[in-house]
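== Protein entry: sequence and backbone fold ==
=== Local backbone shapes as whole numbers ===
==== Amino acids and backbone structure tokens ====
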Amino acid sequence: MAQEKNESVQRGNRKERKGIVLSARMTKTVVVECQQQFRHPQYRKVLRSYQKFYVHDENGTAKKGDEVRIAETRPLSKLKRWRLVEVTKKADQANIEVSDLV
């Protein structure tokens, strides 16, 4: 019994996704857009669908335009069910649009 408590608890498989940060204006929260490509079952055309996730970013490391990896977690608030695993690629600071500065 004591040996079972000392072993690390193995959790079930959690979903992981890759996406691009759309907004990083909230405290400890970023909005990530994930893209999914699939073939239409009848017409066989390749379609893209997008899904937005509210992601918990404890240290505030993700900025707008970064590519990130996120993982599913327990509900942290009304909308947040994902957490930031890592920033895989930083956004180019030179490609900031004028509308972003306003």
